[in-house]
Amino acid sequence: MNAKPSRPALRSLDDALAELLGHAQPLAGVESVSTFDADGRMLSRDLVSALQVPPHDNTSMDGYAVRSSEIADEGVTLPVTQRIPAGSAAAPLAPGSAARVFTGAPIPDGADAVVMQEETEAAGDHAVRIMRVPTPGQWIRRSGEDVARGAVVLARGERLGPAALGLAASIGMDRLPVAPRPRVALFSTGDELVMPGEVPPDQMRPGAIYNSNRFFLQALLRRLGCQVTDFGIVPDRREPTIAALDQAARDHDLILTSGGVSVGEEDHVKPAVQSLGTLDLWQIAIKPGKPFAYGTVRTAHFMGLPGNPVSSFVTFLLLVRPFLLKLQGANRWTAPQAHLRADFEWPRPDRRREFLRARRRPDGTLELFDNQSSGVLSSAVWADGLVDNPPGQVIARGDVVRFIALAELVQ
Ligand code: AMP
Ligand code: MG
User: Domains in the chain, start-ordered, CATH in brackets?
Assistant: First the structure.
C-alpha cells in the first residue's frame, strides 16, 4: 500500500518572509551615479551636510527688514538705507532705518523682522511707512532650519525619490553613492502561453492564452531598480531548461519564474533547479498566492511564483519586493498600512490570510472588487490597494480593516 504523500503544512506569510529575508544578503559594492539618475535607487551611505540650509537667515517675503523694537505703532516712517535682492550680501542695518528685501535675500545684521510690502506705503523716494506693527522674527527663515551643518540628511538604506534628490542637491551633492542594481533573470513557464504580437487574438489555438505575467513582472522589477534579463517562455523540455537556468545563474542575483509551482504539477523548472541547486516548495497561508518556491542555483537565488496572474502579482509584492529591497540594503521594506472603514461585506472569509483587491472612495471608505478570483487581473487594475484580512475574519460593513496602498507597493 502506498502512503499518500502528506500535504505540506501551510506556513504563515510572516514566517516565509522572515526566512526569505534571511537569505537576502545586501549586494556588495557601491555605484556612484549622477543625482539626476538616482531616482528609485537605494542610498548606500549616510549623507552628512557640510553646510546649513538655508545658509543664512533670509526673508520669505518681498518687503522691508526692520528692527521691530523701533516700530511701536502703525504709521512709523523709516528711511530705506539699502536694497538687498536675493543672492547679494547685506550690510548691517543702520539704526532707525529699513532695508528693502526680496524673497530669499539675507536679513541684514540688526534687523529682526520683515514687514511685507503689502503692509507698507511709499513715503517719498527713499523712505517707507510701516502700516502694521511687526512681531519679532516675522517672515524670517532661519539659517539651518531645513538642514543643520553636520546633520545626516538622508540615511543609508533610504530609497531615493524626487524630494530626496532635491534635498541631496541642496547640500551640494551632484553624485550619490547607491547600491548596485540586482540582476534578475525572468522566465515564464506554461505550454499554454503565447506572446502578444506573435499570434493575433482571432488565431489563438484552443487553450492558448497570452503571457500577461511577463509584462507586469518586468515592470515591477524595473520599478524596484533591477536590471532584467527576460529569457521568455522556457521551452517545455528538460535540457534547454537546465541550460537556460545554468546560464542565468552565472550572472544574475535572482532567477524569477512564474507558473508551475503548484504541488504535484509536472514541469521542467522544478527538476532543473533541483539538478543544479536546491529547491523548497512552500505553501503559504495567503490568498491569493498559496504556492511559492525558493531555492538556489549556484550562487543565484531562485524564486518561483504561482502562475495565476493575481497570485503572481500579489506574491511578488509581498515576498519578492521586500527581498529585492533588502538585496539593495534597504532599511525599510514594509509598506505602511492604513486603517479604513469597509463599505462592503465579506461574510465568507478564507482560512488563509487574504489580500483583497479594494479601492478607496472619496469619503475614505473602501469598496471591494466584485470578483476576487486569482485569475482576474482586472481586479488589480481597478483596485488601488489590498485589504490585508486576517485568517477567518468576517468583515461587516463599517468595520475597520487594514489597507495597503498599491502605490506604496509597486514603486
Ligand atoms: P500554474 O501556476 O502554472 O499552475 O498556472 C496557474 C494558472 O495561471 C493557469 O491557468 C495558467 O494558464 C495561468 N498562467 C500561468 N502563467 C501565466 C502567464 N505568464 N500569464 C498568464 N497566465 C498564466
Ligand atoms: Mg503552468
Answer: 13-27+180-327 (3.40.980.10), 31-51+155-178 (3.90.105.10), 58-141 (2.170.190.11), 338-410 (2.40.340.10)
Q: Ligand 1 pocket: which residues have CB below 6 Å?
A: 188, 190, 192-193, 209, 211-214, 258-260, 262, 265, 306-309
Residues around ligand 2, an ion, CB closer than 5 A? 190, 259-260, 307
CA–centroid distance, residue 308 to ligand 1 (Å): 5
Furthest-apart CA pair in the chain: how many Å?
A: 110
pLDDT digits (tens, 9 = 90+) for 232-281: 998 888 898 999 999 999 999 999 999 988 876 778 888 999 999 999 98
| For range 190-197, the mean pLDDT | 94
110's grid cell: 540688526
Report the nearest atom of ligand 1 relative to the CA of 212. Answer: 20
E-strand ranges in 259-399 read 277-283, 286-287, 291-297, 300-305, 337-341, 353-360, 366-368, 385-389
Look at residue 9 in the predicted model and tell me its pLDDT.
80
- State the cell numbers at 277: 541547486
Nearest to 288 by CA among 375, 368, 227: 375
Distance (Å, whole) CA 107 – CA 84: 9
pLDDT of residue 136: 98
Nearest CA to ligand 1 atom 5: 307
